């Protein structure tokens, strides 16, 4: 297939969006001066109620932003046959636009029901609290898409990680699609090669991939995501040989065959602190997810894992760079400032609640 014109179209579409609606720091300095303070204040309160909410809120930006861009022939994971497949398509999807937050309606199945999100993403109620506080202070001013970017930054900073100046000015999408999310979001079974190829579609480098995977420095994941690693890696009927033996014993105790697969375990040894312990664990064979441990077993990603495991400041610097790049994934599209992050303006709240 002759693909070069589609590559040009992809680049043109992304560049057009960024040029047409440039994001910038201090976007709300005149229209809603307390906006960033309000977001951080709500995140602090959520952290006191439930420390795990910080990791949950941080994940929302990634799952929102990566459903993005005009693409052709995307590799995706079929959870039912447990294989990676290639699905040819030309689809315009949306980027950092708050589409993830839309609840299902009678005529739309949104991203919350996608395979990588259902029974996994949480803390949507924290976003609701932020939006309510912002609407009280500055009605119809701050987008839900910008809330996700601010909340992710604050979750990292409040967990002991880096703080940074975010670029704002996004609009909220008018729709969402479960299928679009299923077609693009990576599986916990993914290997380094498939992750590198996925990130490359968004102009994110191998270094960006490894640094952004460091978001797993905080939080937990379900046994569902690792059962194959423990008992049937690559259809072998055996565990993943990359798992350090003592750590595998702990995982076997946490996730025995027949367990409720919604039981959760920590993604690294310091799941409430944003630090470089995650990379130290990968070096020692103690990565929880296959998609994480493969970053050390792959020769292309291993050097960055080693550097970040030894130099936390270098990890923090690369993580901030990756978050800023990911936050600017945009495609020109109609948008609005939603007054309720769960529904498009003007729609009655006849949604099928997803929690």
Structural notes for this entry:
The chain has 355 residues and is mainly alpha-helical. The chain has a domain at 34-73 and 89-219 and 267-328: Peroxidase, domain 1 (Orthogonal Bundle). Helix content is 43%, strand content 7%. The chain has 14 helices and 6 strands. It has helices at 4-20, 35-49, 53-65, 124-137, 144-158, 178-184, 192-200, 206-213, 227-231, 245-254, 277-283, 290-297, 302-310, 312-327, and strands at 68-71, 74-78, 83-87, 91-94, 220-222, 264-266. It has a two-stranded antiparallel sheet with strand order 1-4. Strand 2 (74-78) and strand 3 form a beta hairpin. Helix 13 (302-310) crosses helix 14. The longest helix is centred in the first third of the chain and has 17 residues, at 4-20. It starts with a helix and ends in a 28-residue tail after the last helix. The relative contact order is 0.18. The model is unreliable at 1-20, 69-93 and 349-355 (pLDDT under 50).
How do you describe this structure in short?
The protein has helices spanning 4-20, 35-49, 53-65, 124-137, 144-158, 178-184, 192-200, 206-213, 227-231, 245-254, 277-283, 290-297, 302-310, 312-327; strands at residues 68-71, 74-78, 83-87, 91-94, 220-222, 264-266.
Q: Topology of this protein?
A:
Elements: H1 4-20, H2 35-49, H3 53-65, E1 68-71, E2 74-78, E3 83-87, E4 91-94, H4 124-137, H5 144-158, H6 178-184, H7 192-200, H8 206-213, E5 220-222, H9 227-231, H10 245-254, E6 264-266, H11 277-283, H12 290-297, H13 302-310, H14 312-327
Antiparallel strand pairs: 1-4, 2-3, 5-6
